[in-house]
Amino acid sequence: MADIRDARPTDLPWVFELLAARDRAATGTAEVKYDDLAQGWESKSTDRYVTDDGGYGALNASGELVVAGSHPDALLARIERRARERGLPLLTAVVVDGDTPSGELVRRAGYVQRGEVLRMWRQLDGALPDPAWPDGVRVRTYRPEDAARLHALLDEAYGAWDDTYVARPLDVWLADMTSHDDFDPKLWFLAERDGTLAGCALHWAVDRGDGWLKDLVVRAGARGTGLGTALVQHGLREYADRGAARVGLKVDSTNPTGAVQLYERTGFEIERRYAIWLKQL
Q1: Strand pairing category for 112-123 and 137-141
Q2: What whole-number distance in Å separates Cα of residue 214 and Cα of residue 18?
Q3: What is the reported pTM?
């Protein structure tokens, strides 16, 4: 039986190497970044477990899990037990194409595949159009006093269509997002009309020449007006001004709001696919 314990700070280096090796085996490159893993290593919203012979598992506040290395079935069982203790209704595993061991693990444990996450990139190597803002819309950058209504907009938008979405308390969401090294309030764009938050585009800071669109949301009543396109184009121009070479994002293939088509229209291309595996608790 596996001896599973809570992860310690001293486990970080070998866990990073484990996850990087898993990525390389599946895709040929290491997607995980040491700085990103280290940034959230001691986050109280994520449970992390290890075995002393090289196994690792993690569970975040949204019910997303990661398992790698030795004793994967035992680690997954520990994560599921912890998820029930936390009152999480659903667990999600996102598995990149080529990661056969992870896919087989969750299948054995009764997870069901539902759709894909698409990773898309847009090169910033040509002329960029000026955003055409809908009438009456004003765009500005984020201020700390915006946190509660921005968090509410994201919960409203994602919760309306994504049955896998698990809302995080405001303080947890705010800590996870704004304590991140890549947080830059000047790259969080809020679109308002008549004092109401109509949409937002939240980006990470430029990292090694790459920009990243973390969240793009348009309130239901403002869809179809071109606001989403304008927010994307505004972000592209800002990144180009900062010297980024390309911009990436991830999007759920089952998103019914037309997000995939919006990104394709604005020049993004699919680079990688990830299967979404779900289990109701």
Answers
A1: unpaired
A2: 25
A3: 0.89
